[in-house]
Amino acid sequence: MYTTQGFFLTVLAATVTGHYVFPSVIEKGVATPPWVDVRQYPTYYTNNPVTDVTSTDIRCNVGGSTVSSNTTTINAGDTIGFTASPNIYHPGPAQVYMAKAPSGTDVATWTGDGDVWFKIFGQGPSSFAESGLTWPTMDASSVTFTVPKDLPTGDYLIRIEHIALHVASSAGGAQL
To answer: Which of 65, 122, 129, 155 has its CA 20 to 30 A from that of 102?
Structure first.
């Protein structure tokens, strides 16, 4: 758990991916062991994407809302991240969301139900050219971001997602 400047934030990572997983949290530049502070959802080894954006699986991947994990404490304003396994190999944006658990709720088992998610990070294309877009996440082995400095004290879930756009030319084609 991480604590700083009077801010207390418990993090339970939930991952949504397109053919790769985000199994480890990066804290102070060091990756935790896989699936310790990240929910190890039942089909984590298949790397199958979520394609239905209306499904509850968008929160923590297929069945991920039903499992618990260790939690860790981080400081508001800290730079943290997630490792990717394998490296991200599809074009598309990376995004990070957080959800504050209701008071008195055990964040380790909370499912993140309701309209509680807010975006804290988005990484779109870094350049636009006639030949196409350049994505900073392409071939990346990790994604890092800064937790908002003004985040209120509390217990939160963090959800990272990468939207693979390689087959996004039709409805349901984008892969999370």
So the answer is: 122
